[in-house]
Amino acid sequence: MFSEKLNKLMSSLDINIKYLAGQMECDRSYIQRLCSGTRVPKQNGTGAYNLADGLYKAASGKEKIGDLCGIIGCDAFSSGGRIRSAVVEYLYDGETVENVRSRRSYISDTSAAAYSTFGTRLDSIMTLTGLSNIRLGKQVNTDPSYISRFRSGVRSPKNNPQMMNDIAEALLDRLIEHKKLPALEKLMDLSPNALDNREAAFEMFYDWLYESNNNDSAVLIEGLLDHISGFRAGAGESPLSFEQAVDSAVLSDNSSEYYGSDGLRRAVIRFLGNVVTLRPEKIYLYSDQKMDWITADSEFRIKWASLMMMCVNNGTQIHIIHNINRSMSEMADAIKSWLPLYPSGMIHAYYCKPQINVRFSTTLFLCPEHFCISGSNVTGTENDIGMYRYDTGREQLCAHQAAYSSLLERSSPLVRFISTADADISVKADPSSVTVISGTLTFATMPDSLIRRKAPDLTAARPGISAVNELYECVYLPADEELFGGRVTMDIPGRAAVYTTEEYAEHIGNILKLLESRQGYRLCVLPQPPFDDMKMIIAKNIVAVSRLKPPFMTFVFQHPDMCRAFKSYADSVKKQYGKHIANVRQTLEKYL
Known about the structure:
Elements: H1 2-12, H2 17-24, H3 28-36, H4 46-61, H5 65-72, H6 80-92, H7 97-103, H8 118-129, H9 133-139, H10 144-152, H11 161-177, H12 181-187, H13 198-210, H14 216-229, H15 242-245, H16 248-251, E1 257-259, H17 260-278, E2 282-287, H18 292-295, H19 298-313, E3 317-322, H20 328-338, E4 347-352, E5 360-367, E6 371-378, H21 382-385, E7 387-391, H22 394-409, E8 411-418, E9 434-438, H23 448-454, E10 471-476, H24 480-484, H25 501-517, E11 521-526, E12 534-539, E13 543-547, E14 553-557, H26 560-577, H27 581-589
Parallel strand pairs: 2-3, 3-4, 9-10, 10-11
Antiparallel strand pairs: 1-7, 2-5, 4-8, 5-6, 6-7, 8-14, 9-12, 12-13, 13-14
């Protein structure tokens, strides 16, 4: 069975729940459920891959890849991707749907469809106990508008495991306090008194509340979009001055060798300090060793961030190959951590397609024609006895430049930044299907007459939707107080404008015409905007995420895994809120 095999792997690899949760960057309670067998992710889903990826990382960190391969029956010299696939095959060998259902017997297959999603279940509990958005928001330390989005189903808290736990705790305490456990037992289709034990009740309630909300891709996408939506003007300012970030003794150091994580930190301060002073055109960065040499020292991390900001503010281009190794969580984290630097236009981010070497880690920080930090160490020894060279010789620098160029040839762009609020990706998009998700009606469906009045210079800039076979728009339609209060944003690239009621009706009228005349055009009405002033254009092979408020910006993704994750997120939105065209027309006509 799944849980037995998982426990065997963890025992053989000498890893516990806390360690595996750290590798997977998830809540420990999730791993506990996997180990107990009360939760089994879908075999072909992202959850299964993330578990296999976490086990692979754990085995690598413990230097037990050979042991892992011996258990799962895989050649130890196989690629990382093949080993992960073999882990999934091993865990699910003999696992059947009936096995999973029997372990979840406390949740009936005939549970009411009305409570089939996280949003409807959350709403039912809050209604049952008379709990308001404001009160729950205060209890779990989040904005009431987020609670409202959770209740409507357009968002989920799954990118924040601590919030998930806090919400379940707050709701269960409220149910107990108001003596509503019998009503909850009926809602969950449980036998009377099944929730008498508080600890067991929490486990069952937690599983019931979040069970249907298992789109792990959506979790990563929502976390990334939250960072882009929350980006503020001034985020590119350096936290420290140059004098605070760089000690003069470090800057003038002439050492050619540095040892351990402390040595690497000293070398990097010297490297970046001299880059800020020299203002070179470009620098090149790559490292596939664990990032604890940065994250373990908060003082150094602030210095590092300050110096990186100074580099881009000086006009130095930073070419960085991220250590992603096909992990979606690593990819999203890399983008989020570098987000404040992207608006400078100086960041060129890549991902390397070949698998990393699990035996050795490599670091290469190059400032062409000036200096380079390089290190190749046995994985796991970097912090203590790792050796890093600081080279300044011409021949050495040429060799490092050739090595980096070779690595760059095997890499592809991770993300592209555009300093505007719109990007027409239609010329590059797969024409079979494009989905747009936005908190307002989109520029693509705005009538020409309205564009000529509001932005005559952009009349010819409309995205080429006619070349798309299927265009699916998922948009929020405002309440009367928003529309009549002049608070509904127009999707005009790079401009802050709002609709009048007449202009909104004009746009709605054009959408109704498209529904009649444009075969393949569909509209999905969202109960709330999933993100404030954001728009996503999602195709099979390319994705654009735009901010519709200052600072205006667009991020373009073409990494296949990232595109698949966005598509999965879009598909879940369409599945939940897609309605018959007659119902859509009826909703739209209210705005005419």
